[in-house]
Specification:
InterPro entries: Uncharacterised_YxcD. It holds the Pfam family DUF2653. The chain has 88 residues and is of the alpha+beta class. The chain contains two helices and five strands, in the order H-E-E-E-H-E-E. A three-stranded antiparallel beta sheet has the order 1-2-3. Strand 1 and strand 2 form a beta hairpin. Helix 1 packs across helix 2. The longest helix has 16 residues. It is globular and about 35 Å long.
């Protein structure tokens, strides 16, 4: 879960050209809505859907691990906390 939050923070900070420390993320899972995240950047709230989360994970994997992954390789799941499984 921490790496998903890191991925979203880094992606949103880069996108909105703000310091990473100014981005707050809360991951959300609802049975009827699926996976999402509430993101606050400089006091403004944004809602990310599953596709946005996968985009952030793809960029994070490329920048942090030098691995190119595609959306179809990423599966989000939740038990006690949210996690991502990446197929090779």
């Amino acid at each position: 879960m921490d790496e998903i939050v890191n991925a979203v923070c880094l992606n949103m900070a880069e996108r909105y050209e703000v310091p990473v420390a100014s981005v707050e993320v809360e991951l959300v899972y609802e049975e009827d809505q699926g996976f999402s995240a509430e993101v606050w950047i400089q006091g403004r709230q944004r809602i990310l859907i599953e596709a946005n989360l996968k985009e952030a994970i793809m960029r994070y994997m490329l920048t942090q691990y030098d691995q190119r992954v595609f959306s179809s390789q990423i599966t989000l799941d939740v038990e006690d906390e949210m996690w991502a499984d990446i197929e090779s």
